[in-house]
Structures are given as structure tokens and as C-alpha cells.
């Protein structure tokens, strides 16, 4: 089954609303041009789903009432989907992913993987038992310079990690929270839909994941302070976490969704024994490399001196900025390469394709649950229990 023979077929659960992240998933898959949207349960309301599906050009008989219905019906079709894309509120990731995997359908799911470590272990088991591929769309891993950082780190350019500082300030929740009432609050303020942590699960999971994706290091224990700042919130919107990695390195993560004046300022400083790497998502066409006793280097995405692992994903010449949609598209390109290879009967080592895996997702879920445990037990060290 080569790419030239046919496009892959995918369906979406959630992601219909014009403001949802589903738009970016669809645009990214369009950019790659190797997969077409053929079905979906785009909303919890069937009427809304029908309206949205029709706008996306999906046939009426492939717009479903629920993810269960979609998994059931698509598995029976000769032209059923090759993968399902899940971009619902967090609480539905687990049941939807499980339903598709049990029918042998590959899954691309937005983050965080699910709500609890128990759900995460069950999803890992289900993926193995049903031999399905699982891609977790942690956006920032898709930027070319994230892939450049991964290649540089893994080739030993900055040596073993000693410490890492990650900050992620945003202010998009300030106004929303102040206006929020019991009736108008969004799923992000409802623990049953969001999970035990809000900001720590939402943006903390990106922080843990980026460092894991680039270095391969896993968080062993955490000491967290989670707080709800300002009016109208029931869950955390500002946090500080000290982390210890399995190689002995330490780290400090600060995240906030009420940091006035900050848009989406995810920044990582990886400090190794020979040098350091700095990634700033708001300036994501450039990566800063500092080596001992050398002037600072600014690596420009797509330059001839870049690593093949990042050059592989160049879409536009350097100096013409790429962004969030391209980052999603790069993750999907890694994933659809694996889906095609699986269709060709090849044995797949998911980590080698360069997309965040279910194992990374499970680590993320353990990470943010350990942070909530730390907070609830008086800000003490908690092992992540991997
Ligand atoms: N990777 C990223 O950078 C990124 C960015 C934003 C959001 N996200 C993640 O994407 C997910 C969705 O977030 P969002 O901001 O798009 O939320 P949203 O509230 O804007 O959209 C959620 C969508 O899911 C639909 N939906 C709700 N319940 C459903 C159900 N049971 N079945 C089918 N559809 C259902 C809604 O109708 C809506 O279309 C979350 O898990 C979030 O963490 C990831």
C-alpha cells in the first residue's frame, strides 16, 4: 500500500466547533494531503454534528451519534477509517480511544491522553492487544526546531541534561474566569470533564512532554504548588513544580493561565554538561544553542546546516515563518508514515517515527496526577510511579 495508491481515511470525534482545536487538526491533515475526512461524531449534540459534518463535506450516513456508534459502524465497512482523530474535552479521550482501539482502529488523540494513570495503563494495554498505532498530538513537538533540539540532544551536542527550566505563561483565562458563572462555565472548570488538575493537565502536560520528547528523560518525582488565582475558578490556573528526572537531573516548571500580558509563551531552557538549548514557541522558527566558551548560535529552521531529522519536515524556505498548523502537520506526517507502513505489513517501532506515543501520554498523566497529589498532601515530594 503506497501513498500513491490511495489517501488514508480518517474520522473525527469532537472538533466540530469553529473555535475548537479540531480546525487545526483538519487544516494540518489538508496541508499534508495524504488523508481525507470521511466521517465523524463532531459534537455531543447530533444535530450540531450533522450541521458541522455537512459543512465539512461528510456524507450524511457517516455522521454518527457517538464515538461508540462510529467505531462500530466504521469497523464493519470495507472502506472504513484508517484512523480516528479525538479532540473532545479531556474526559472523553479515554472512552473514545478505547472504543476505536478495541475495533482495531488506529488513533490520534489530543492531549492529555486521559484523566487517570489507571485509564492510561488500560489504554496502553488495549493498544498492545489490538496492535493499533497511537499518536498523541502534543503540538510543540511538531515544530521543526523541536525536532532539531531532539536530534542535537540525542547526538550529545549539549551533553547529559543537568537541569531544565520550563515556563508557560498565558492570560487567556483571565477574562473568561472573571465572567464565569455556574451556568456558563466551560468544561475546563469542571473536574469531571477536565480532570483533577486544570492548568497542570492542560499546559503542564505540554511541559513534561516536550522535555521527554527531546531528551528521552522521564520524571521520577515532583513537588508541586498548584493554586487558583483570582475570581471564579474552582481548579488550578497557576503552578510551580520542581521535578527530578530518572538520570538525576532536576527541573523547574512554572505555568499560568492568568499571567496578564502573556499570549502563549512556552519556553524551555535545557541545560546540559556541555551547553544549553533554548526553545521559545512564540519564536518557533529559531532555536538557540549555547556551547561552552563559544558565542551564542541562533539556528534558523530549514538551514542547510540543520539536522536531517528536522530538514525532513521543511515545507517553506527559511525566513518564511512556519507555525502551529505546520507543527500539527509534522506530527501527522510522522503518524501517517507509520499508518502506511503498517498497511504495508511492516513492524512498527512508533518512537522511531517521531510522533509522541501512548507511553509518553501515560507519563504525562502520571506527571499531572502526581502534581495534584503533591498539592493535596501539603506540597510534598511524590513519585510518579512509572
Ligand atoms: N494540542 C494542542 O495544542 C491543543 C490545543 C487546544 C486544545 N487541545 C485539547 O483538545 C481537546 C479539545 O479542546 P478544545 O479547546 O478544542 O475544546 P472545545 O470545547 O473548543 O471543543 C470541544 C469539541 O468537542 C465536542 N464534544 C464535546 N463532547 C463531545 C462528545 N462526547 N462527543 C463528540 N464531540 C464532543 C464539542 O462539541 C466541540 O466541538 C482538549 O482535550 C484539549 O486539551 C489541545
Which ligands accompany this protein?
A: nicotinamide-adenine-dinucleotide
C-alpha end-to-end distance? 37 Å
Biggest sheet layout: 9 strands, mixed
Strands, count: 14
Total separate domains = 2
Instruction: Estimate the helix proportion, in percent.
Output: 25-40%
Strand residues, percent: 15-25%
Compact summary:
By secondary structure, the protein is an alpha/beta fold.
How is the secondary structure organized here?
Layout lengths: L7 E7 L7 H11 L2 E7 L4 H10 L11 H10 L6 E5 L5 H10 L3 E4 L7 H14 L3 E3 L7 H11 L6 E9 L3 H7 L11 H4 L4 H4 L1 H12 L3 E9 L10 E8 L4 E7 L10 E6 L2 E6 L5 E6 L5 E4 L7 H4 L12 H20 L14 H19 L5 E2 L3
Parallel strand pairs: 1-2, 1-3, 3-4, 4-5, 6-9
Antiparallel strand pairs: 6-10, 7-8, 7-14, 8-9, 10-11, 11-12, 12-13
Helix pairs in contact: 1-12, 3-4, 4-5, 5-13, 6-10, 10-13
Bound molecules: nicotinamide-adenine-dinucleotide.
Nicotinamide-adenine-dinucleotide binds next to strand 1.
GO molecular function: nucleotide binding
InterPro entries: Gfo/Idh/MocA-like_OxRdtase_N (IPR000683), Gfo/Idh/MocA_oxidoreduct (IPR051317), GFO_IDH_MocA-like_dom (IPR055170), NAD(P)-bd_dom_sf (IPR036291)
Protein name: Oxidoreductase, NAD-binding domain protein
Description:
Strand 10 (267-272) and strand 11 (275-280) form a beta hairpin. 35% of the residues lie in helices and 22% in strands. The chain has helices spanning 22-32, 46-55, 67-76, 93-102, 117-130, 144-154, 173-179, 191-194, 199-202, 204-215, 308-311, 324-343, 358-376; strands at 8-14, 35-41, 83-87, 106-109, 134-136, 161-169, 219-227, 238-245, 250-256, 267-272, 275-280, 286-291, 297-300, 382-383. The relative contact order is 0.16. It has 2 domains: 8-132, Rossmann fold (3-Layer(aba) Sandwich), CATH 3.40.50.720; 143-313 and 364-383, Dihydrodipicolinate Reductase, domain 2. It is of the alpha/beta class and 386 residues long. The longest helix has 20 residues, at 324-343. Strands 13-12-11-10-6-9-8-7-14 form a 9-stranded mixed sheet. Strands 2-1-3-4-5 form a 5-stranded parallel sheet, with helices on both faces. Residues 13-17, 19-21, 41, 43-44, 87-90, 92, 110-111, 137, 139, 187, 202 line the site of nicotinamide-adenine-dinucleotide (NAD). Residues 8-135 form the Gfo/Idh/MocA-like oxidoreductase N-terminal domain. Residues 147-278 form the GFO/IDH/MocA-like oxidoreductase domain.
Amino acid at each position: 500500500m503506497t501513498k500513491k495508491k490511495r489517501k488514508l481515511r480518517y474520522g473525527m470525534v469532537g472538533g466540530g466547533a469553529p473555535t475548537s482545536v479540531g480546525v487545526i487538526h483538519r487544516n494540518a491533515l489538508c496541508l499534508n494531503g495524504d488523508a481525507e475526512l470521511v466521517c465523524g461524531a463532531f459534537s455531543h449534540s447530533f444535530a450540531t454534528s450533522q450541521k458541522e459534518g455537512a459543512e465539512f463535506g461528510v456524507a450524511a450516513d457517516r455522521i454518527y451519534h457517538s464515538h461508540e456508534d462510529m467505531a462500530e459502524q466504521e469497523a464493519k465497512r470495507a472502506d472504513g477509517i484508517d484512523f480516528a482523530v479525538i479532540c473532545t474535552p479531556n474526559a472523553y479521550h479515554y472512552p473514545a480511544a478505547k472504543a476505536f482501539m478495541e475495533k482495531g482502529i488506529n488513533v490520534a488523540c489530543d492531549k492529555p491522553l486521559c484523566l487517570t494513570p489507571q485509564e492510561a495503563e488500560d489504554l496502553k494495554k488495549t493498544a498492545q492487544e489490538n496492535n493499533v498505532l497511537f499518536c498523541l498530538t502534543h503540538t510543540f513537538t511538531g515544530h521543526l526546531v523541536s525536532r532539531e533540539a531532539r536530534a542535537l540532544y540525542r547526538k550529545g551536542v549539549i551533553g547529559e541534561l543537568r537541569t531544565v527550566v520550563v515556563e508557560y505563561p498565558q492570560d487567556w483565562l483571565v477574562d473568561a474566569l472573571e465572567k464565569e458563572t455556574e451556568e456558563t462555565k466551560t468544561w475546563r472548570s469542571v473536574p469531571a470533564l477536565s480532570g483533577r488538575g486544570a492548568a497542570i493537565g492542560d499546559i503542564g502536560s505540554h511541559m513534561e512532554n516536550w522535555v521527554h520528547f527531546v531528551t528521552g528523560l522521564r520524571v521520577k518525582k515532583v513537588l508541586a504548588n498548584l493554586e487558583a488565582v483570582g475570581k471564579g475558578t474552582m481548579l488550578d490556573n497557576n503552578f510551580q513544580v520542581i521535578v527530578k528526572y530518572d538520570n538525576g537531573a532536576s527541573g523547574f516548571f512554572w505555568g499560568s493561565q492568568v499571567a496578564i500580558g502573556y499570549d502563549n509563551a512556552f519556553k524551555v531552557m535545557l541545560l546540559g554538561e556541555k551547553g544549553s538549548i533554548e526553545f521559545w514557541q512564540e519564536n518557533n522558527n529559531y532555536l538557540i544553542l549555547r556551547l561552552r566558551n563559544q558565542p551564542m548560535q541562533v539556528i534558523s529552521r530549514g538551514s542547510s546546516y540543520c539536522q536531517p531529522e528536522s530538514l525532513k519536515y521543511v515545507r517553506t524556505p527559511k525566513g518564511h515563518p512556519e507555525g502551529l498548523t505546520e507543527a500539527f502537520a509534522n506530527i501527522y506526517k510522522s503518524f501517517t508514515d507509520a499508518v502506511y507502513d503498517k498497511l504495508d505489513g511492516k513492524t512498527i517501532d512508533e518512537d522511531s517515527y517521531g510522533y509522541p506515543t501512548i507511553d509518553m501520554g501515560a507519563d504525562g498523566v502520571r506527571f499531572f496526577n502526581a502534581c495534584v497529589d503533591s498539592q493535596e498532601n501539603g506540597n510534598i515530594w511524590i513519585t510518579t510511579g512509572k
